[in-house]
Amino acid sequence: MERLQILNRHLSPKVTFEDFPNARILTLNRPKSLNSLDYEMLQTISLLVDQTPNKHFVIQGSIPKSFSAGGDVVATIENPRMVPEFYRTELSTIYQIYKQSTETLAILRGFAIGAGNGVAMACKYRISTETTRFSMPENSIGLVPDVGASYFLTHLPSKALGLYLMLTGKVLSGNDLYWTGIATHYVPEASIPNFLNDIKSSNSLLEVLNKYHQLPTREDSNLIKNLHEIEQVFGDVNTLEEVLMKLSSNPTPFKEQTFAAICKLCPLSVKVAFKSFKLGLSKNFKEALEHDYNIEVQLCYRRSYNYTTAITKKFVEKVKEEIKWYPEHINQVTDEMVDTIIRNPEGPFLHLQ
């Protein structure tokens, strides 16, 4: 009891938890910001993970419409000197979850975006529902898919699909999420309350997951409908230019939409994302997080023009005008620029334990 009281004094009300005989249920509780993760929340999650008794660890959002809308990106441009520490805490917390010896679960209801997905993908199990809207849209804000995406997208059953998601930030439904292999289970929204009640006392999280899991209809997945073309375009390519060439030849509605979508994104981000994906194919989870940290430091701190401009326009000024990226076009992004972002020559660096 005394240990719990000491722990409570260091916790943020933006992350709450309840302990049950066989489960600790952690709730992201920042509903007005759709549960986007700020520094204080990440510190609290880290404490709760570190102090979790020998029981299932479950993480959910406080509102059905959002698991987490990502990281608190506005805070990173308001206090740029905090960027290295913010991302260090974020990735260290994700790695803590990944290393847990007990069963871990993320319940992805509603929006599941960016950093929130890093937390979710560190869990052993992930539930999607009919309300799930999963995306890694960082190329649209001058960053790249990070928080372990260079591992979890490169290790999907379909490497072509992983690259497609890495470059486009395509929004996935709960059905899509299950059939890509990102979600391990699909549970209908109406069953979630009963599911939560059952895991509070069950000795086996997997047994409860299997009890409530309902196989979604594969034919209803829009992503699966396009899988053949995704494999044709994004499979077996060595450069981003090859992808763009395939998209622009023998046009189809899917190719045209995808080409247009990529061309709207930050050119530097897209080039770095492609290289990050290729490097991630040979990395383990820890190495991928350390690799992602280098990119975060470079694009959000050292060379942050695109990131700062995009966050200011989209989330501070909230204007819909087109962002003027630097460089403006993909063909202006040099290999040297990309390599500098990946190497992070000035540091700091992340060394996870």
Q: What keywords describe this structure?
A:
353 residues; alpha/beta; 2-enoyl-CoA Hydratase, Chain A, domain 1; six-stranded mixed β-sheet; four-stranded mixed β-sheet; globular
Describe this structure in a few short sentences.
This protein is of the alpha/beta class and 353 residues long. Helix content is 48%, strand content 11%.
Show the helix and strand layout.
Elements (H helix, E strand, L loop, with lengths): L1 H7 L6 E6 L2 E6 L10 H12 L5 E6 L4 E3 L4 H6 L4 H17 L4 E5 L2 E3 L1 H7 L3 E4 L4 E3 L13 H4 L6 H10 L3 E2 H7 L4 E2 L5 H8 L5 H8 L9 H4 L1 H8 L5 H9 L4 H11 L3 H14 L4 H18 L2 H12 L18 H9 L10
Parallel strand pairs: 2-3, 3-5, 4-6, 5-7, 6-8, 7-10
Antiparallel strand pairs: 1-2, 8-9
Descriptive overview:
- With 353 residues, the protein is α/β, with parallel strands linked by helices.
- The protein has one domain (2-343): Alpha-Beta Complex (2-enoyl-CoA Hydratase, Chain A, domain 1).
- The chain has 18 helices and ten strands.
- The protein has helices at residues 2-8, 39-50, 73-78, 83-99, 115-121, 149-152, 159-168, 174-180, 192-199, 205-212, 222-225, 227-234, 240-248, 253-263, 267-280, 285-302, 305-316, 335-343; strands at residues 15-20, 23-28, 56-61, 66-68, 104-108, 111-113, 125-128, 133-135, 172-173, 185-186.
- It has a six-stranded mixed sheet with strand order 1-2-3-5-7-10, with helices on both faces. Strands 4-6-8-9 form a four-stranded mixed sheet.
- α2 runs parallel beside α4 (83-99), α7 (159-168) runs antiparallel to α15 and α13 (240-248) crosses α14 (253-263).
- One of its GO terms (molecular function) is 3-hydroxyisobutyryl-CoA hydrolase activity.
- It comes from Blepharisma stoltei.
- This is 3-hydroxyisobutyryl-CoA hydrolase.
